[in-house]
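Researcher: Good morning. I'm working through a list of sequences from a screen, and I'd like to move beyond sequence-only analysis. For each chain I'm collecting a predicted structure so we can compare shapes side by side. This is the next one on the list. No need for commentary yet; just the structure.
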Amino acid sequence: MSSNNPTAALLEATNELNKVIESLNKQLQQKEEEAARIQKERDLEIKLLREQIEYFKKQKFGPKSEKTSVITGQLVMPEVLERGQFDEAEVSAEEDVLPEITTKKKTRKGYSREKVLASLPTEERIYGLSEEDKVCSVDGSKLSYVGKKYLRAEIEHIPATVKVIHVYKENWEYRTCRAAERSYIQEASVPQPLLQHSMASPSSVAWTMYQKYVNHLPLYRQSKDWSNLGLEISRGTLSSWIIKTADEYLKPVVDHLRTHLLKENCLHVDETPVQVLKEPGRNNRTKSYMWVYSTIAESKAPIRIYDYCPGRSAEFVVEFLKDFSGFLHVDAYSAYGKVKNATLCYCWAHARRKYADAMPKDLKSTEATLVKQGLEFCNKLFKFEDKLKSLAPEERKEQRFLLEKPVLEAYWSWVETSIVTVPPKQKIGQALQYSLNQKTGLMNYLMDGHCQISNNTAENSIRPFTVGRKNWLFSGSPKGAASSAAVYSIVETAKANGLNPHKYLQKLLEELPQMKESGTTDLELVMPWNDKIRKNCS
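Model: Good morning. Structure tokens for this chain:
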């Protein structure tokens, strides 16, 4: 038929060719769509990698403060950075320029020289004339005294000294009783030693603890300091002092503090890793953890307790808090959810930090706009909290519902709308998803006026430990880690109560051996809120 009708054959061939072309076009379109999809995935992957690089650069070299505000589309750093990140010495030097002691002039708000020097012992150093200079070189007449002129005040540093105390005990006898063959020897009472058969004293051990756990000075450096003072004493001896005194005297005090802590209605909890050597059945590189439990800022008996544990398992926090019932301020770590009788209040500082971490380099991008909106919501909540902190708990609860709940409702609506517009792997997507996942816990602080909006109290409490860890790097044994936990508990609780931690440590090491010898078990006598302790250790 095609040979008899050339037109039909041509038409059929054209149709076949069109089908082939159409098929090829479809294949080409599919390949172009596949290439576009692959390119889009690659672009997103490149964007995520660049975002990750910027995040790591910010973590490594950026400011660590979380004080942020969103102004004119930019993330504004804390005002201290306006003066430069590396001029700490110059700033300190400028602040050390003090006004004249005889005036009321102040260098900065709340600071005066008279107030700073009021508690220090003083000495007048007067430079006068020699007897020869008191005679006039012209006519030989004697000079008459007309007064002294004040020039300046200087602070003199007196280096520490070490001395050996030889302890003796006097013995007296009753001669008449001796003659009558009665008991006739009377011995003087002597304070009990801190450690039997040891040179350690309350002052030397307290200073060793203070240097390590407050000033973050490792024991090998302290050993050199002792040597410079004339006493050769090894790091092992200093370590033994700490472990033995902490185990015998400080741990019972910490246990007593724990009974007070568990009676509180609101607590803060956090944890941080620590490397501990010589743990049975574990590699030296295995992570152990130091947990910190803290009362809220408004507590009448501020307490900070550190608890060393060989892991991060929920069993440790569950065991510690088994007698607790109330609100726990924590991060979103799942272990806290296993604590019975506890209502979890998640930390808004963590939620805000997610947005700060997501801030891209391009502040005009869509992601930057969402980040700034998220920060604005969080900052608004924190500003309200700052205004409400002076109120009584019940009034604070009422004001939160009036001022903060509308902001929260707007925030959750914004989160649900925004989360579908960004890739889930992107930093801003992770920040939005974090808030959405923790919504219930983030809202729980509204339930009680005693609750806090953040877990900053626990994070601030654990910071001294992390600073010290950078210096001494690891604990030599589980006993050493447990002793460190006890000493940190004492010094941080002392600081929370406004006490001088060195004075409080020395007072404890002076009193506790005597209490143990006399059989006294009332540890309330040495609690940091005891009036006598406050008087002697402030």
